[in-house]
UniProtKB/TrEMBL annotation:
It comes from Anaeromicrobium sediminis. The gene is cheD. One of its GO terms (biological process) is chemotaxis. This is Probable chemoreceptor glutamine deamidase CheD. Probably deamidates glutamine residues to glutamate on methyl-accepting chemotaxis receptors (MCPs), playing an important role in chemotaxis. It holds the Pfam family CheD. InterPro entries: CheD-like_sf, Chemorcpt_Glu_NH3ase_CheD, Cytotoxic_necrot_fac-like_cat. Keywords: Chemotaxis, Hydrolase. GO terms for molecular function: protein-glutamine glutaminase activity. It catalyses: L-glutaminyl-[protein] + H2O = L-glutamyl-[protein] + NH4(+). Its EC number is 3.5.1.44. Belongs to the CheD family.
Amino acid sequence: MGKVIKVGMADLNVAKSGDCLTTLGLGSCIGITLYDPISKVAGLAHIMLPSSKSIKNNSNPAKFADTAMDILIDKMIKAGARKTRLVSKIAGGAQMFSFSTKNDLMKIGQRNAIATKEILKEKGIRLIGDDTGGNFGRTIEINSDTGILFIKTIGKGTKEI
């Protein structure tokens, strides 16, 4: 087993040769994993918001689903991945607080999940695993040798997708 590379909030990274990528405490945020099963290159982005388009000064493109995905794909290609072989698994997108309002703007987790799926579709990347929604946080880890995504949830144990 290689090293474990931590990916922070509004951050992204790439791993290969047996290394793992992990991100902690996904609430309404989404952990987007991309994987090339042939080159065994894995990528992980921890996004906070669905779109950068409404933000004027985007100093951190890893914060948004749309801009993070572009950077992650580029980094993976530089590491030996092929875009045509990439598959994705996503986790997070929880509704961490209950709101009495019917305002969809407050449903950040759900909006993040929808935006992520739309962007994957636009880019022609197949979504093969999805653990989004609910009202609980998740910690995830993807193994670059296998592409298995481990999802740890407090009180619910660990599952693999």
